[in-house]
Write a structure and sequence with these properties.
The protein is an alpha/beta fold. It has 2 domains: about 10-125 and about 280-290, Quinolinate phosphoribosyl transferase, N-terminal domain (Aldehyde Oxidoreductase, domain 3, Alpha-Beta Complex), CATH 3.90.1170; about 130-275, Aldolase class I (TIM Barrel, Alpha-Beta Barrel), CATH 3.20.20.70. The protein has 9 helices and 12 strands. The chain has a 6-stranded parallel beta sheet with strand order 6-11-10-9-8-7. The protein has a 4-stranded antiparallel beta sheet with strand order 3-5-1-12, with helices on one face. A two-stranded antiparallel sheet has the order 2-4. Helix 1 packs across helix 3, helix 2 runs antiparallel to helix 3 (about 100-130) and helix 3 crosses helix 4 (about 150-160). The two termini are about 45 Å apart.
């Protein structure tokens, strides 16, 4: 992949198809032995319920999984991606071949429960900072994603109202402490980064102290990651920077601390917990034979 993923409807649909096809192949293998007990001509109507309040995400993956096994299946959605649902609310109704519904059930529910969890977690953080007077901080994701499902999870972050950091190592420069050590210091590594800047969406450098912040500013840094600083240090960092660079906070961010961090005046707050520390949303599917 050599370009930033654009998250257009067509791109997301293609992504969902690839993800769902891989998941179905993993699950079904040489054939669904249990679904094979059902009459191949039988048709059913199924309804997916959310057992808890959530922000819904995963429609393209649900549709891709179902339509791959039954291209004639009909799906009627009652809650769109990015919308909130209440407990026990119907999310989508599916009519199609009984065997296909049975074989796709776990795969499509897995995608729906994971991506809705990410969207719901993100929405909680976004809501927390929106309550801060004068807040300008965006909630940003990280690369702490499930292997193979990064783009799906980053789509879910967007559905929850958050923003995406870099997609991977190929589309932006993020200089961390080990890069600084390996490249002989902040000024030296930023100078080298300038040589590849045209290939990147952005160049960002991580600092752990206010002295390093000043060094990065003096070296011309335009985007700086403040790692594990307390609120007093963050406020001082904002004062020192005075708008010369975009300031991002990382480390020690939770729902109980994010509002205070946003109130310091930083521009971005990146949170690994959006995609890493999540609890699946509870969904169930109920069948009715036609």
């Amino acid at each position: 992949m050599n370009a930033v993923f654009d998250f257009s409807a067509a791109s997301v649909a293609a992504l969902a198809l690839a993800d769902a096809s891989r998941a179905l192949d993993e699950d079904i293998g040489t054939g669904d032995l249990t679904a094979g007990l059902v009459d191949p001509e039988a048709r059913s109507h199924a309804r997916i319920l959310a057992r808890e309040a959530a922000v819904i995400c995963g429609r393209p993956w649900v549709e891709a999984a179902m339509l791959r096994l039954d291209p004639q299946a009909r799906l009627v959605w009652h809650v769109a991606d990015g919308q909130r649902c209440s407990a026990n609310q119907g999310i989508v109704e599916i009519t199609g071949q009984s065997r296909a519904l049975l074989s796709a059930e776990r795969t499509l529910l897995n995608f729906l429960q994971l991506l809705s969890a990410v969207a719901s977690q993100t929405a909680a953080y976004v809501q927390a900072v929106q309550a801060v007077p004068g807040n300008r901080a965006k909630i940003i994701d990280t690369r702490k994603t499930l292997p193979g499902l990064r783009l799906a999870q980053k789509y879910a972050v967007r559905c929850g109202g958050g923003s995406n950091h870099r997609i991977g190592l190929y589309d932006a420069v993020l200089i961390k402490e080990n890069h600084i050590a390996a490249a002989s210091g902040i000024a030296a590594v930023l100078q080298r980064a300038a040589q590849v800047a045209s290939q990147a969406v952005f160049v960002e450098i991580e600092v752990e102290t206010l002295a390093q912040l000043q060094e990065a500013l003096d070296a011309g840094a335009k985007m700086i990651l403040l790692d594990n600083m307390d609120l007093a240090q963050l406020r001082e960092a904002v004062r020192i920077t005075a708008g010369r660079a975009i300031l991002e906070v990382s480390g020690g961010v939770g729902l109980d601390t994010v509002a205070g961090i946003a109130a310091t005046g930083v521009d971005r707050i990146s949170i690994g917990a959006l995609t890493k520390d999540i609890k699946a949303v509870d969904f169930s599917m109920r069948f009715q034979q036609l």
